[in-house]
Amino acid sequence: MGKRTEFLYLSESDTIEAGVLDADRCVRNAEEVFTLLSKGDYLMGGSNHNSHGLGLVFPKDSPFPNMPLAGPDRRFVAMPAYLGGRFDVCGNKWYGSNAANPSNGLPRSVLTVTLNDKDTGEPLAFMSANLLSAARTGAVPGAAAKHLARKDSKVCAVVGCGPINQSCYRSIVSQLPDIREVICYDLFEEKAGSFLNWSKVELGISGKISSDLEEVLRNADVVTIAASRLKPLYFKDEWIKKGATVLVTGPVHTDESFWLCSKIVYDNTKLHEAYMQEAAESGNKKNYYAGVIGGPLYTLMDDHLLPPLCESVSLGDVILRKKPGRTRDDDRITFIACGMATFDVGLGYDLYVTAKENGIGQRLVLWDDPYQS
Amino acid sequence: MGKRTEFLYLSESDTIEAGVLDADRCVRNAEEVFTLLSKGDYLMGGSNHNSHGLGLVFPKDSPFPNMPLAGPDRRFVAMPAYLGGRFDVCGNKWYGSNAANPSNGLPRSVLTVTLNDKDTGEPLAFMSANLLSAARTGAVPGAAAKHLARKDSKVCAVVGCGPINQSCYRSIVSQLPDIREVICYDLFEEKAGSFLNWSKVELGISGKISSDLEEVLRNADVVTIAASRLKPLYFKDEWIKKGATVLVTGPVHTDESFWLCSKIVYDNTKLHEAYMQEAAESGNKKNYYAGVIGGPLYTLMDDHLLPPLCESVSLGDVILRKKPGRTRDDDRITFIACGMATFDVGLGYDLYVTAKENGIGQRLVLWDDPYQS
């Protein structure tokens, strides 16, 4: 007789019940993951242990009429990870994305996470991961705001008013209690308007919308950038004031001088080393750089204008006080985040534990007695 | 109001009810997938569209006491794919493996497959994939036996008597009705004995066991190799008789002359091109080659002793009659199979359709109305 294997299924509403919308809790989870990244107690994919994930790349054209073609936000990606510390668990995020989804009543991306016993590989949980993924993505700049932003930050600029930045902003204000004004910018004005309204109603923070990016940024103490990839976003160095903290979660273009006159903190320098390695191997570095958030920084490193990643700072180093973060009120600090499966596994694990303890979700049987063992 | 999303959960016993043990059906499914591979109507991971998958690579040692370490069969792998034709669906296989599992009443690997709508990314099904994966792995040499082996093949040698070769052998004999004798070889004699017994009882084919590999191979018309990676397997060129078909599903070492005097047919030359590309990028080609089934062949190609992959034959080419397979009764044909996610998606899809039509499995709700859309 073999071993019976059960696991827990969590729908989206189960993940809400398990606490995925508790921004402060998600930020604490992300802080813990950042310390594990800094210590090295994790694995992501590949022999360098730091691959972001493996995607299906849809072709630009195809002789096969049904094959999905390249298009806005169209991709499928698998993102495996092991996370150590008290988590000590393996998992995989798997998602499909399509910019056309919202017109069909669906989120742009549809995500699931599987958690697995690190030794046996048995599934522990399979869960809807849309809110989980948004929460962990938002919690990352939330943790960065806590450790890098001026405590007296009052004005927050939101550049890109989609669900990701909603989650980022919620996390950021959960860590900076003095924030009293939000300035919302989006390519689509009505999205900026809905965001502002949501901020007022849900978080009690009012402000304004603007389609003038300079006006949006000029007075911001904290800037969170998570704009659509559909149109390149550009801001001038001089629009960012002294002492500001710029939290970058989506691609952005700016003046070279901005990068050179800003203190840069990365989510995980090892991840960016893996990106640079992949770019070098791809045979078309420039093209590869154009598709990743850190691209402009990698170019400056190749040109020896920025220090190499091995000499740069990860947020976990700051949290653990291994390297300094903000040292002066006047520092302009830029935080670069690319998304790592370790955060999905970390937050997913805490939701799983909460769900198990509180009888949330459905228990499913993989097998009573495995057919082959 | 957004769109409600439901999907189907299939346990291992649900997959049995949906037909995963029907070897002939699985072989027909694999044949269909082979034709799509030959036509190019599929995508696997990466920009070359042919990556096998992305794994967590456990380190040899670690300063963290809980981190899983490299060990026999220890890995986690994510394998995404799109499969065209009538399937027209995306999916991902995700599994963890550990040679210590059987001593805990578990299969060596624990596998799941997720199928997704190619456009929206919504999950269609999440299923136990142990039998699915074994069935598709076995169906591949089954399809190869049908198209490459002599129809009058009578003696089948089974090298490695684990669950994978059980599935291979079941598929092979489903396609070669004249097989009347099996010769079983395994490092562990009792495993060979159980296999022989199972063959008698389940398939009505008797034979013998032997620990002398030469004796096992000398008289075989068909050889199926799926031995453990724990100990390298070596056979001599002269042990394989004229007219034999050697179906390679696991790593094997043999004389150079065997590869040079055998007609080689691949599961998919494009997959092997991707392996060779990855090996070149890894910076340690020899080491990479040592870890993959095609390694000895890639070495001979590098040395220009075998024709390059672009001039070689895929099984789908033979099925579609684009290239010749067996042309003479005396041909020794070797078939090389490495495992592709396209087969998991193809067979998984047919099980999903059967389950849906017959009310097998559990319907699960991802969301009634997505929180963010």
UniProtKB/TrEMBL annotation, chains A, B:
Protein name: Ornithine cyclodeaminase
InterPro entries, sorted: NAD(P)-bd_dom_sf (IPR036291), ODC_Mu_crystall (IPR003462), ODC_N (IPR023401)
Pfam families registered for this protein in UniProt: OCD_Mu_crystall (PF02423)
Protein origin, superkingdom: Bacteria
